[in-house]
């Protein structure tokens, strides 16, 4: 199975950006998405492949549909990496911020659904495609004050399984990769720019890097048509669970 064109949401930083870099080196044409247009334009200049950028907020279904509809005909999406997402805040439910909850559910769950719904018809017509959903260890476990973020990633886990059932019998693969601690802009977003708090998340241990996840995604895509790495949990060696992390 050879894929040619990958659509990556959340390509402006972290895991999405690293995946764009690896797939560009492998000759994929790329459709890169995010809200920060300047970063997307920079990637378009830097990456050694054809790059089409789409600036939209995954929360806005009309924007998602319009962006996908504007794609040139020669860019037939055969890989969708549903990566856009973040945690917003970390607090016990009883003191949680409702705006943070809305952001996580709207981006991590509804946004992933909107993008998938917009991209799938073309894949189904061509009977060919691969959807990789970026879940999390937070979709497999719940940890203190993780409540709504964990719920959003448990939803991704359920959507991943449900989509694989719904697409069974088509030529489309559906997989999830569920990382533990990856050192990206994730914690800066979660802790609203608090650098000290963000740094402590990865302090005293070798966290995963975005490139580690991107390499696994590239490996998943390189498997033959009959092989689907359906659900992968990947942790730093120092992490045993969401709450058990050994630090030097
Ligand atoms: P980053 O903060 O580095 O990247 C998040 C990406 O998502 C950015 O490109 C951002 O682009 C995009 N994004 C966020 N909100 C929106 C939105 N409303 N509309 C469109 N794009 C959006 O974090 P990571 O790379 O770590 O996160 C990527 C995925 O990996 C997420 O789904 C996250 O939950 C998951 N994950 C992360 C882990 C970690 O420890 N870092 C571990 C497990 C899973 P822009 O701001 O330009 O819109
Ligand atoms: C990100 C990993 O442990 O911060 O999904 O939830 S964690």
Which CATH-level-2 architecture? Answer: 3-Layer(aba) Sandwich
Beta-strand level of the residues, as a percent range?
A: 15-25%
Query: Which ions, cofactors or small ligands are bound in this entry?
Result: NADPH dihydro-nicotinamide-adenine-dinucleotide phosphate, 2-hydroxyethylsulfonic acid
Question: Could you state the CATH homologous superfamily?
Answer: NAD(P)-binding Rossmann-like Domain
Keywords: Oxidoreductase
Family: Belongs to the short-chain dehydrogenases/reductases (SDR) family.
Protein name: SDR family NAD(P)-dependent oxidoreductase
Pfam families: adh_short
Write a concise synopsis of the structure shown.
The chain is α/β, with parallel strands linked by helices and 248 residues long.
Architecture overview:
By secondary structure, this protein is of the alpha/beta class. The chain has a single domain (5-234), classed as NAD(P)-binding Rossmann-like Domain (Rossmann fold), CATH 3.40.50.720. Helices cover 42% and strands 17% of the residues. The chain is built from eight helices and nine strands. The protein has helices at residues 14-25, 37-46, 61-69, 98-126, 147-166, 186-190, 195-201, 210-222; strands spanning 5-8, 29-34, 51-55, 79-82, 129-134, 172-179, 182-183, 208-209, 231-234. It has a seven-stranded parallel sheet with strand order 3-2-1-4-5-6-9, sandwiched between helices. A two-stranded parallel ribbon has the order 7-8. Helix 4 (98-126) links the parallel strand 4 (79-82) and strand 5 (129-134). Helix 4 packs parallel to helix 5 (147-166). The longest helix is centred in the middle third of the chain and has 29 residues, at 98-126. The structure holds NADPH dihydro-nicotinamide-adenine-dinucleotide phosphate and 2-hydroxyethylsulfonic acid (8X3).
């Amino acid at each position: 199975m050879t894929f040619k064109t990958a659509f990556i949401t959340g390509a402006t930083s972290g895991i999405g950006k690293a995946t764009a870099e690896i797939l560009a080196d492998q000759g994929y044409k790329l459709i890169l998405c995010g809200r920060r247009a300047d970063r997307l334009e920079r990637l378009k200049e830097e990456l050694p492949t054809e790059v089409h950028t789409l600036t939209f907020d995954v929360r806005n279904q009309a924007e998602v549909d319009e962006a996908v509809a504007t794609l040139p005909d020669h860019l037939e999406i055969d890989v969708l990496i549903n990566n856009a997402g973040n945690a917003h805040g970390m607090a016990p439910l009883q003191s949680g911020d409702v705006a943070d909850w809305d952001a996580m559910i709207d981006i991590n769950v509804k946004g992933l659904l909107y993008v998938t719904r917009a991209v799938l018809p073309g894949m189904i017509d061509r009977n060919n495609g691969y959807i990789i959903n970026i879940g999390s260890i937070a979709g497999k476990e719940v940890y203190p004050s993780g409540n709504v973020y964990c719920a959003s990633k448990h939803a991704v886990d359920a959507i991943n399984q449900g989509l694989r059932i719904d697409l069974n019998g088509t030529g489309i693969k559906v997989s999830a990769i569920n990382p533990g601690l990856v050192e990206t802009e994730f914690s800066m977003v979660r802790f609203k720019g608090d650098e000290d708090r963000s740094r402590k998340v990865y302090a005293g241990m070798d966290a995963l890097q975005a490139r580690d996840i991107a390499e696994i995604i590239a490996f998943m895509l390189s498997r033959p048509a009959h092989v689907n790495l359906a659900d992968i949990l990947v942790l730093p060696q120092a992490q045993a669970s969401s709450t058990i992390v050994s630090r030097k």
